[in-house]
Amino acid sequence: MDAMPYHDAIGLLKLVEMTSDFIAVCAHDGTILHINHQLLDLLSELRPLIVGSNIKDLLFSVSFERAADHELPFPLDGSDTKLTLKLFDGSFTPVLARAVQLSSGTSEQADSGRILVVMQSLKERYARDVELNRALCELQSANKRLSGIISVIVESIGATDLAKLLDTVLNELVSALDADGSAIYFSESTGFRLRGVSRSLSECDVPVFLPYGVGIPTYVMRKQRSCRLSVLPAIDEDDPRIIMYDHGDRQRFSLRIEETLPFRSLIAVPVFYGTQVLGVIELGWSRPKTQRAYDVKVLEVICEFLSIQLVGLVNSLRSKRMTKLIRSINHIRDTLFEFGVVRKGTWPKISSEMRRVLSCDLYEFKFDADNECWALDVNGRFLDIPGSIDEMFFSTRETAARPNPGIEDYLAHAGGAQSTCSDDLERVRLARFNVESTFGKWLKSHGLPGQGIFVDPGPQLIVQEPPTDARTADDSASAAQTPVQLGLEHMYVLLRDESYEPLDDMEYDYMLWLAHEYEIYLGDATHKKQQGCIAQTLQVGMRNALGNVPGLTTDSLYSSATRQALVGGDFYTLIHLPDDCAVMVVGDVSGKGVEAASMSALVKTALTAYAWEGADPDGMCRSLNSMLMSFSRVETFASMFIAKIDLRRGRAWYCSAGSPPALLIRSSILKSSDEARSCTPESCVLDMQSGVVGAFETMSFKGGSFEFSAGDILFMYTDGAIEARNSKGEFFGEQRLRDHVMRHVHQGLHGLCQTILDALDEFTDSTLDDDIALVALRFDRDKEPE
Predict the structure, then answer these.
(1) Is residue 633 part of a domain?
(2) Is the pLDDT of residue 527 over 80?
(3) Which residues of 346-364 are buried (b: 16+ CB within 10 A; e: fewer)?
(4) So what's the pLDDT on residue 692?
(5) Is residue 58 packed enough to be buried (19+ CB in 10 Å), middle (13-18) or exposed (0-12)?
(6) Pick from 544, 559, 531: which is nearest to 766 by CA?
(7) Rounded to 5 degrees, what angle do the CA atoms 152, 156, 161 make?
(8) Residues β-bridged to residue 376
(9) 701: helix, coil or strand?
(10) What range does the domain containing 31 cover?
(11) Cβ 318 vs Cβ 601: under 8 Å
């Protein structure tokens, strides 16, 4: 250092002390002239013992060897060299060294120039690299999860194919969370049905159906929360059960191996709709893995969004499926009436249509006289069943537990639907069975599908055909004289392959509707009675009913012009939507009898689907108009009043399509005197009107809106109320209806509709000739402050 100018040496010493690297200044032969405090701290030795020593004794190669020929262990061109630094305790630490020669400024002293050696600890660099890589991995993982969530949301918006939607969601989850597989089970009437698996599980043995009480879906349903589960090591390898550990409440429980997916660790998340468990998603790994709480949150977010999409999609699919079933019923009805009288070909026509619509195979029971038992004819192979028909299908010992309704049952209940009851049948007997029933297990043991419907059409009425030479030219007279006798009894089972969707309640109702049609046909009932019973069975699952919506109180009444029918063309429904929203529908389909009943069922189901899709009232009318124009007859149309209610904002949007204007009675009017309770159009009548739905393709629908407060009442009605006539031919009219409403509304909401109907009966002397629907709805909460 003394060979350098004084001011240069001082500057160099200050510089090496300011840096965080390890620095040494050496002579050309390697003698250490100076070290900074960072290197001194690393070596953990006194400065006098280091200064004056040779750097060749401190720096070695990565293989702990000295430089050859007593050369310096590093080049002097400033390039990086990996070396090991020997500490004074005898240990070594890896360093990255760079060295340059410091010029003295004169050519005479060039050979005696000093060397500046800069070293960095590779341990610290390795630690920083590891930390950086860890942070990058976590960032990539977070980005992957976020991308998966976005992909699931984007793919599910506007989805029309349930199977494709589930396949996309499950595979995106596996990719986003680096899992080995995923599956989703839907809740049904008797258990959980597998509805989709990821591609990685397509070749694995996955349980297709899990009855209530077994499997992980039942465990999750009981816990009502997401569960992080792990499989514990088996104590006994021959034990058919495995021990599961719940990380949430730190409990153990056992399951049979065949009831679980091939995972060692998994996350099971329920898909909720309100408080109802619609299904369970299982995401798992084939290796032991600690599930992160963040992964559970990701799954819960996806399940919450998926539940809304599922409800809307299933409603839409139900609407399409119901349309197909109604068309099939109409086709069978037309086929039956083509016969005119009972013929041998009646049942084959019906059974052929059932097989086509339900995608099932039909097998017949035949009595085995030798063994005195019934046998199932499977393509010429007769299988004796292990018991009588009543023991197999109608025994009280066959359990039919139903602890939790399925997704479609829940939606049907929310829409006011009720299943047709098989007890109403007189001749035909129907019974469902699944793989858990005695007959289902017996079918599975013979390689047949274990789910389906037992059908006993009863003794068949057969018309004996007259001889060809005995027929006269008067066909009608000949048919009238044709004898009818009771034929042999035939019984059948409809079996659907388990690779297809299971037979649901709507398809079972379809069978009940067909059974009613068949009984009416066999009973040779009058045409009027046939029409009433058909209309009743078509819509017995769609009776008018208002659901329970917090914040709304309702009163309703339906009066059918046909006293024998429970339903007709008029309908109403209240649809409860998420986020404190609801949709109120009151409508009327043109016509009466079978067509009006079937069309009103179709219209109400379609509007329910549109409501779940988030459409506005005028948008619902436009969509329904397009649907009706595509297949209904010219004279078939519908009028309706639709209101979409936002209870949080205290606002509602409506569309009155050919329906009489609804009345909005303010709570301030209700509190005023009778003289001040006037019904002015500005304050009480919702007069934004549009044309009827289903009449013209170019029909325009306009919507209106209104705000409401707690205590306000919305009164809606169909045109049968104002078009009722008395003996003088006078109409009841809108003004008279409004006067009656305003006169009695202060007495309370409950009973208001019955009071109005009593007034109509008094006006017409109980001779109403049209269906009437009346609905009063009271808002019980104010809008939330913004």
Answers:
(1) yes
(2) no
(3) bbebbbebbeebbebbbbe
(4) 93
(5) buried
(6) 559
(7) 130
(8) 365, 383
(9) coil
(10) 6-128
(11) no
